[in-house]
Every structure is written in C-alpha cells, then in structure tokens.
C-alpha cells in the first residue's frame, strides 16, 4: 500500500474533527488539577456523621424540630465520601418529613433571620435537589425492568418502594416552594454554582 | 423621582454600550458591528456604523478625553477607532490570543487598554511610538479560565479581573515608559507587570461577572453568579485583607456593578432592574431597587455605567441589555 493510500485511509477512518486537541496542549485548561481552584474541604468520617445523625434524631424525638433541622444543615459533610453524604441525606430527609406543613414557613423565616441563616437555607436547598434527584433515580431503577425483548420498559403500577419515594418527593417539593418564598431565587442559583456539594 | 429615560434602539441584544464624555454619542455593540447613535431631541438617531469585526462584538469603550473607541470581538481581535474628519479609522491590535476576546476597557490614563479573553489571558495593550503600532503584553498567571470582565484602578496600573474560575483578581499592569511609577498603597509597594496583588473567592464560588474598584481604589467589589456581591478591603502587601464582606441576595445574579461613593454600590443583572447596596468594612446590605418598579428593561441588563457625575457621586447611570434598550436612571 502506498503512503498516500495509507494516509487517506487514516483520514477516512479517523474523524480528526473529534480529537480533543486540548488534551495535547500542556497549557490547556483541561490539564490542570481542578481541586487547586478552591480550598480543600475537611474530610468527614462515617462515624462522625452517624453520631451527628444520632444527635439530630434525639432533638427530633425531644420535639425540637427546628434545632434538629439547623443541626443537620450546619453539619453538612461537604468533605465526606458518597456513602457519608447519602447517610446525611437520610437524616435531613427524616427531619424534613417530620415537620408539619403549617410549621415550614415560620420555621424557615426564623432560621433565615438568624445568624448564618442565609447559608443554612442554601444548604437546605442543596439537600432538596439531592433528595429529588435520588428519589427519581430509585423510582426509575425499580420501574425500569429489562423485558424479554431486550428493551427496558416502564412497568405497570410502581411497586411499594416507589410509594415512599413518591411521598418523599412531595415533601421535597413542598419544602422547595417554601424555601424559594423565604430565600428567593438566588438560593437556587447558589445550589447550582456552589462547589461544596452535599 | 423622575422615571428612567428609556431608549429602545432595536430588537437585538446589546453586548455593551458606552457614551462619549459629552453624552452626545452612544456606541452600542450589536452583532458584528458597533453602531454609533447621536442625540436628537429626546431620542437617539443612528449616525454611523463601525464595521471591521467579522464575529460578534463583545465589548466597546469610548475614551472620554481622546474620543478613541476600542472594540473587541469573538474574532479574537481588538480595533482602535480613531476619530477623524472623514469618519472613524480602525487600527487592528494583535492580541495574540487563540480564543474570543470578551471584554475591553481603556485605562483612566487612556494610554493603555486591557482585553479579557477566553484564552485565559488578559492582553494589556499600549501604543509603541517608535514602531507606530499597538503592542499587547499578556497577564497569564494564575488565571485558570475565561476572563469575563476587567476594571481599572484610578492609578491606571492596577487592574481587576473576574473569571469563570470563580476568582476575582487584582494584577499590576505596569508598563515601563508608559506608566508613572505608582505610589505604594494597600495593594502593594513594588508592582512589576503581572504581580498578583490579590486573589479572592467567595464561599459558593460562582462565575465572576463584574468587578470594580471603589472611587479611592482602596476596595474592590465583585458580583458573581451565585447572586452575591463581595467587597474586599485589603490591608497591605502580602497580608490577608482587613475585611471581605459577602452579601448573598435572594435575587438573580448581577452582571454589572458601579460604585457611588465609598459606601454605596449599584448592581444590575438578570432581574432586569438595578439594585442598591450600602455599607462599609463592617458590613454591606441590599437596600432596595433603583427607580420605580415599572419595567424599564424587559430582559437581562448586561452593562451599567456612570452617565452623569463620577464614581464619587453618581447623578445618573445608564444600562443596556438583552432587550436592545438603553436606559438612563437617576442614581
């Protein structure tokens, strides 16, 4: 095979346009460590987050739902791994589910006006989005079952597991509405921009 | 309070606008050209069109004293338009960047201008007499992403820049032979080119959309995509700042901001309205919106600038936005 033929074969086979040239450029922005862009987060262990969860639940049992919510939000494990974050999401979800609809707005207003309240509601909004994302994920996973045809299809009526995630979803949605009323749209923006993920 | 003066120029986004010092000429960046409007009665009439860029013009600035216009574009070029009896004459400035130019501003001395870019550099451009052309020098380190905005310190040496890496930075753009050696101040003592005098990040770290030095130059404000404004009070070279005050608002993000004295900031953006903040080192607060709640703008405000008065005391300011309108407000 001649050189020209080889080259033209290569051109035909490889789509040069799809080559990510940034990877070949040492100066390129895709070649630096993104973690250097912001200060490092303190790591959080599973034990720590479990004991925090225990304290929060104790406050909840003692009837101090507001204290429980604040405690859970202030202890958000930014530096934890996925398992730790999942554990804390469960804690926050429990607290949110235990608060009556009529108490939501006054409680949010009290938190918002207190020291560090703005930040606390930003964290709450992050949990609402995380909660909504994970409850849709779990309902998808159970509703989609591989069929004999090889295609995934939505099953009939979702199973019992979905009932609970649906209930959680409605709790998140009603909290979402109330948080936006108190903390405004800025709160949603910050959930998206913030590099400290819950 | 008089209602704002609304000029609906066309149905197309205005990337940037600039008034001449006598406020008779208004330059707006529209698509790939810059349109010049002249005052006629209570409105504005188009009088000239500056065509020279072949991609979207991202920014335009009229130097108040010389009347020169600088423009920059996604075509990676900057043009300096020299006024002459037969119209504006463009001069191409080689920026040596491989991504779009995003933002341009003349220094207060009008001997330099700074161009932000997607190539993670700021091109500081100055005129070299012996060669009879504009030269650009790059500020590179430690910029990690696109520069969205730049703003000059009153001394024409320090330059603030905001970036999509969520940092607002202060650099020295000192050019030997062009600039007078600046007096030592809170930002530093010796200031060779590309000295990083400050690097700031707020808690939630949104893209930085706007930066501005206070009228004295001793404080820096920036607005980010997390709907916040942050004010930094430096204490001296190589020392942590005296105070960094961040205000998270319930509003949508701000795209542009100006100072009105040392204790007030006016910011506008995605809420299609301008808002006032008041404060000092001890703390800043959102105090309310400017003007009547009537919608002068129908879409995002991209740029606000001082129209009448100065940064020490703004009498009127102008805004332009995605709705193709230029609005003049009482501050």
TrEMBL record, chain A:
InterPro entries: ARPC5, ARPC5_sf. It is found in: Cytoplasm, Cytoskeleton. One of its GO terms (biological process) is regulation of actin filament polymerization. Pfam families: P16-Arc. SUPFAM superfamilies: Arp2/3 complex 16 kDa subunit ARPC5 (SSF69103). Its main location: cytoplasm. GO terms for cellular component: Arp2/3 protein complex. Keywords: Cytoplasm, Cytoskeleton. Belongs to the ARPC5 family. PANTHER family: ARP2/3 COMPLEX 16 KD SUBUNIT P16-ARC. Functions as component of the Arp2/3 complex which is involved in regulation of actin polymerization and together with an activating nucleation-promoting factor (NPF) mediates the formation of branched actin networks. Arp2/3 complex plays a critical role in the control of cell morphogenesis via the modulation of cell polarity development. This is Actin-related protein 2/3 complex subunit 5. It comes from Coleophoma cylindrospora.
From TrEMBL, chain B:
WD repeats lie at residues 50-82. This is Arp2/3 complex 41 kDa subunit. GO terms for cellular component: Arp2/3 protein complex. Keywords: Actin-binding, Cytoplasm, Cytoskeleton, Repeat, WD repeat. The keyword Cytoplasm applies. It is found in: Cytoplasm, Cytoskeleton. It comes from the Eukaryota. Its main location: cytoplasm. Belongs to the WD repeat ARPC1 family. The lineage of its organism: Eukaryota, Fungi, Dikarya, Ascomycota, Pezizomycotina. It comes from Coleophoma crateriformis. The keyword Cytoplasm applies.
């Amino acid at each position: 095979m001649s050189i020209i033929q080889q080259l033209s074969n290569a051109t035909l086979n490889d789509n040069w346009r799809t080559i990510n040239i940034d990877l070949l450029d040492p100066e390129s922005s895709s070649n630096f460590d993104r973690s250097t862009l912001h200060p490092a987060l303190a790591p959080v262990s599973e034990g720590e987050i479990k004991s925090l969860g225990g304290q929060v639940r104790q406050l909840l049992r003692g009837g101090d739902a507001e204290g429980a919510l604040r405690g859970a939000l202030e202890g958000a494990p930014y530096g934890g791994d996925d398992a730790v974050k999942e554990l804390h999401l469960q804690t926050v979800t429990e607290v949110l589910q235990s608060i009556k609809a009529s108490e939501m707005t006054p409680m949010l207003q009290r938190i918002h006006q207190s020291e560090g309240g703005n930040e606390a509601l930003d964290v709450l909004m992050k949990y609402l989005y995380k909660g909504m994302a994970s409850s849709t994920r779990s309902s998808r996973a159970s509703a989609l079952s591989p069929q004999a045809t090889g295609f995934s299809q939505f099953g009939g009526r979702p199973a019992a597991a979905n009932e609970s995630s649906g209930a959680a979803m409605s709790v998140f949605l009603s909290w979402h509405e109330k948080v936006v009323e108190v903390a405004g749209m800025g709160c949603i923006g910050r959930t998206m921009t913030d590099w400290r993920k819950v | 309070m008089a209602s704002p003066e609304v000029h609906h120029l066309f149905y197309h986004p205005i990337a940037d606008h600039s008034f001449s010092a006598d406020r008779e000429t208004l330059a707006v960046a529209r698509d790939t050209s810059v349109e010049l409007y002249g005052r006629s009665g209570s409105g504005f009439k188009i009088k000239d069109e500056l065509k020279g860029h072949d991609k979207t013009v991202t920014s335009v600035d009229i130097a108040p004293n010389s009347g020169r216009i600088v423009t920059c574009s996604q075509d990676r070029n900057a043009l300096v338009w020299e006024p002459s009896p037969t119209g504006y004459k463009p001069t191409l400035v080689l920026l040596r960047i491989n991504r779009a130019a995003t933002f341009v501003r003349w220094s207060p001395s009008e001997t330099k201008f700074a161009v932000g870019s997607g190539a993670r550099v700021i091109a500081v451009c100055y005129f070299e007499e012996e060669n009879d052309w504009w030269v650009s020098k790059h500020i590179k380190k430690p910029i990690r992403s696109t520069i969205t905005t730049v703003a000059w310190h009153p001394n024409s040496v320090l330059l603030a820049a905001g970036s999509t890496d969520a940092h607002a930075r202060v650099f020295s753009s000192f050019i030997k032979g062009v600039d007078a050696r600046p007096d030592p101040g809170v930002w530093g003592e010796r200031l060779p080119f590309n000295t990083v005098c400050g690097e700031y990040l707020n808690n939630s770290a949104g893209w930085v959309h706007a930066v501005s030095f206070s009228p004295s130059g001793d404080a820096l404000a920036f607005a980010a995509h997390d709907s916040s404004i942050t004010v930094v009070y430096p204490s001296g070279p190589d020392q942590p700042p005296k105070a960094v005050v961040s205000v998270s608002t319930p509003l949508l993000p701000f795209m542009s901001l100006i100072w009105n004295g040392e204790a007030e900031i006016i910011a506008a953006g995605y809420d299609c309205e301008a808002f006032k903040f008041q404060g000092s080192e001890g703390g800043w607060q959102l105090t309310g919106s400017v003007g009547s709640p009537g919608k002068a703008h129908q879409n995002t405000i991209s740029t606000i600038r001082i129209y009448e008065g100065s940064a020490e005391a703004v009498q009127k300011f102008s805004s332009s936005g995605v709705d193709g309108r230029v609005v003049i407000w009482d501050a």
